Known about the structure:
Layout: E1 4-12, E2 21-28, E3 33-37, H1 44-51, H2 54-57, E4 62-69, E5 72-73, H3 79-85, E6 86-89, H4 104-114, H5 119-132, H6 148-161, E7 166-170, H7 178-193, E8 197-201, H8 205-211, E9 214-219, E10 222-228, H9 229-233, H10 247-255, H11 266-273
Parallel strand pairs: 3-8, 3-9, 6-7, 7-8
Antiparallel strand pairs: 1-2, 1-4, 4-5, 9-10
Amino acid sequence: MSLIELKQVTYQYPLDTEPVIKDVSLQIEAGKVYGLIGSNQAGKSTLCNIIRGFIPALFFGELTGSVTYQGKPVSDYNIGALAAEIGYSSQNPFTQISGVKDSVAEEIAYGMENIGVAPAVMQKKVTELLQLFHLEALQTKNPYELSGGQKQRVALASIVALDPQVVILDEPTSQLDPQSTEEVFQIIQLLKSQGKTIIVVEHKVDLLAEYCDEIILLADGQVVQKGPVQQIFSDPTILTYGGALPQMALFFLNQLHQTNQIPITLEEAIQQLKGGITR
């Protein structure tokens, strides 16, 4: 059984004349990393809000079809309880700071305080997350004094602190430099090793190619392609739907005119050029 399942889901915002999500059926399996791609206005953030139950609970509008989490309709969950199960980080870290805590360490602990985590356990978790997200030097600073990239790391740490089963990251690297971006994806890999299910909305397809198990391509509110990362990112037809291909795939397709066994990461390209096998 799928962890999350959408069946023929259509959604229209209250003031819109047309649906933004159109007849979407989708299965999300536990323990996998999914890359959600598509052009701007394709409906990616809206789909994320449907999965985590904020639509229609908080956004209203008209939602048809069914959305289930662990076999139970999302609408049957308390929205607060579901938020602890399905963590969410938006592309704007400025909206994710609580505003009620004076330090980074307290901000990370805030969610755990709200659900009654024991102080000793909470302190241990905060220490671990400060190290994991490279925030030790900032732990006493006020979150509002941080840069956008630093705020993004604090927001991610606050979500991971609640130990959700599903983590939805909506453009988590939009405020980050290349090194911090790579670190976020390493954290995604760590979360996967812990059995978490992760959905990443991201334009940096080279990193998605390296870290994801499956890719979901959304265009005009519809899922136009879904499948293993190798299959999707070696298929140039995704370009017609507003998707993008990794640099390695583009090089082998356009410069070497290769049509089969297209490598999508640098490691795969090296293996192939040395006569190795691709995944």
